[in-house]
Amino acid sequence: MRVRLTAIAVLALVLLGFVLAGTATAQAATPTVGPAPRAATPARAAAAAPATADDVIHIKGKLIDTRFTPPRPVAGVKISVSQGSKLVGTATSDSKGSFSIPIGNGATVLGETFTVKIDTSTLPKGTALRDPKKVELKQRILLSSDVFITFPIGNNPNPPTSTAIQGVQLFTDGIVFSLLLAMASLGLSMIFGTTGLVNFAHGELVTFGALIAFAVDDLPGTIQIAGANITIFVGILAAIVLSALFGWFQDRVLWRPLRHHGTGVIAAMIVTIGLGIFLRNLYQYFAGADNHQYSQYATPTPWHFGQVLVTPKEVAVAAFSAVVLVAVTLALSRTRIGKATRAVADNPALAASSGINVDSVISVVWAGGAALAGLAGVLLGMTQGFDYQLGFKILLLIFAAVVLGGLGTIWGAVVGSFVIGIFINVSTLVVPAELKFTGALAVLIIVLLVRPQGLLGRAERVG
What we know:
This protein is an alpha+beta fold. Helix content is 55%, strand content 12%.
């Protein structure tokens, strides 16, 4: 058993190292031939300042005015860093908009929280912060490396509006988020339905897809067909394929042997917790702890429907997600493999006696569930950016959606995702955004008290 577990760990490390190493190596590579490099987006331009060679940690950034194409640097703006009531240092943005403030040796500042403040009175005439409320940013130092931040400058995309307009805007944003949450939740529900496994590492499958697409997006140059930049689309395709392979790989070398050895559900659940911790640390090692943005469609021009703003990117993401969800649910309902999947979910022993290869069906489910999770990760990264904890941050919402809709049901995960996704967004009208996830838990508790099997689940006799 020890040899097998060691082999599993080594194989997982090799697979993920091969796939994710592109994120680290691509940042250091400089193309000498081939397509021209992409223009820097505002998010990447902020991180363009060179790293320092000493062991002192600096807080760096680059101020740019996003109203222009390409964005223009903003010089002469004062930035200060403080820790509590103590002023640590100040700097003024140079002609390139860059600033750098040393805050101390890595050994002394790790784990400490600093406040970075921009002096808006020093902004050039005619410029302003895109979000006037974000004059100060809190930054906790987690790694012994320079920290890059940005204060977006330009027109305020969120001018004051009425409560009704804000509610419509939040509802619209909630629909987009719900569709992405539904894909991740459906993958978890499929795996639970066929194996009974409560997979606490499912969030890492979401992050895996986002990182794969970012690795493709971060390669030098662009991928073009007939003059059109299709880099992000190749990244999405790579994320789907490699996520499916990663899901199949997990089942083949880990979960199938554990099932054949009669490992209990509780023991397997504990394994998923350990696997999730392992993968998160691996992601952080290869991709770092910074927030990442895809280069394409980073700052799209929104469409105005009255005072409600919708970006073309959100419409495309929502439409694509809806098509994927409909296709998957129809496949599970009407295709041969879908019927075999439902048979295994209902009664594995009876399915096996009917000639169904249960292990093969479960492997297909793992591949499909992981592909859905990876796709959800890519699209979430496109709409809001991501870091190595993307999946872990929404794992609680995924579980809430699956349990609320009904464990193991096809449409239950989708319905539960819409209830949770829309509710947590609209609830920010009355509660702070930091507490919106607690509202999802409140809804979950209330529904389970009234209907324990979930909204679309079937009541079952216990005992």
